[in-house]
Amino acid sequence: MHHPPDTLHARKRRKARATIVSAAFQLFSEHGFENVTVTAIAERAEVGRTTFFRYFGDKQQVLFADDGAEVDRMCAHVREKAPRPLGGNLRACVEALRDAQETARSQPSLSPAHSAILARLLRESTELRSRYLLTRQQRSANLASALTEAGAQEPVAVLAAHLTMACELSAMRMSRTPEAYPERLDEAHRILEGLNT
């Protein structure tokens, strides 16, 4: 597959974005989410507010910045690699998403340090938890569409995407540390498989 040359401009944009994310997470870690302003993030990242808004709509978006890229990778994986025909097979749909999740996880969107901060902030803030659940629901809708495109019946695709989300949320709830998350996620999926035996 031919990739366009990695231009200096693209590299600079990626670097600026990463610097903003890094500055934001440092500040959230030091002061909590509520007490940090966009201005403070821009100052710590040594960019102007205009630059901040070129990359992110608000400070909440910084926290969930890489969710979008991860879900795009998962959807592409489902469309390309899911076994055909998925049809009405719920188990095959859940397994296709699990497979996509494993692949996406091999190049994690957040560093372990940032994941730990995010987990703490979610415990501390109701407002953030609701925003997080909205991003999860959007992610489920995208995954359900990818399954439908791969030939799954719509009700089955929607249920599979929500079961996958339920496993993720359960794993988060059950993890005392971010390091424990992958194991808890495996456990949630094993319990789910127990339904079919």
UniProtKB/TrEMBL annotation:
Keywords: DNA-binding, Transcription, Transcription regulation
UniProt key word DNA-binding: yes
Pfam family, one: TetR_N
InterPro entries listed in its UniProt record: DNA-bd_HTH_TetR-type_CS (IPR023772), Homeodomain-like_sf (IPR009057), HTH-type_TetR-like_transc_reg (IPR050109), HTH_TetR (IPR001647)
Residue span, HTH tetR-type domain: 14-74
Gene3D superfamilies assigned to the protein according to its UniProt record, in alphabetical order: Tetracycline Repressor, domain 2
Chain residues forming the annotated DNA-binding region: 37-56
GO molecular function: DNA-binding transcription factor activity; transcription cis-regulatory region binding
Transcription regulation listed as a keyword: yes
PROSITE patterns per the UniProt record, alphabetical: HTH_TETR_1, HTH_TETR_2
PANTHER family: HTH-TYPE TRANSCRIPTIONAL REGULATOR BETI, HTH-TYPE TRANSCRIPTIONAL REGULATOR RUTR
UniProt protein name: TetR family transcriptional regulator
Organism of this sequence: Nocardiopsis kunsanensis
